[in-house]
Amino acid sequence: MPKVQKQADFLQRMADLEEAVATLQRATRGRDEVPLWTTNFRNLAYDDATSWTTHWETTLTPRMGTMLLGLMFIGDQVGGVNTGGEWQILLNSSTFLSSGSIPATYSYQMPTVPIDLTPYRGADQLQVRVQARRTAGATTGGLYGGGGCIGSSVRFARLL
Description:
The chain has one helix and twelve strands. The chain is mainly β. The longest helix is centred in the N-terminal third of the chain and has 18 residues, at 10-27. Strand 8 (84-91) and strand 9 (95-102) form a beta hairpin. The N and C termini lie far apart (53 Å). The strands form three sheets. Strands 1, 3, 5, 10 and 12 form a five-stranded antiparallel sheet that branches. A five-stranded antiparallel sheet has the order 2-4-11-8-9, with no helix packed on it. 11% of the residues lie in helices and 44% in strands. The protein is elongated, with a radius of gyration of 24 Å.
């Protein structure tokens, strides 16, 4: 004879539902990685331009409140002269978000930039661009002949 399972009482069902909702809420607090794509054919994007050049970009649909962006920049050395520059982050190709300097010390700069996505949560898409330019260093020689280059990479891009 088949066994019939008794229906749990209302309070037990309510406790089970509250536990399931709490589990779902904890699960949505996780971090999602966001890919940023280089705008050239190398893993370390580098360029010797003195005007702003996009090194990395992505387009995403903002669903969380914050994006944490970890970057790396370095200026190279040409003929014993160190290269320095600047970096900036743009949203939707025109909204300036953050910037910093790349000292001409032939050493890595590793900024971490929090991006508040709250104003863009209703948007279908948001473009994030990482740009850099050379402001100091050799003006001839180097890989492209225009002087020293600024190298950059994305260490991480997380949605929180």
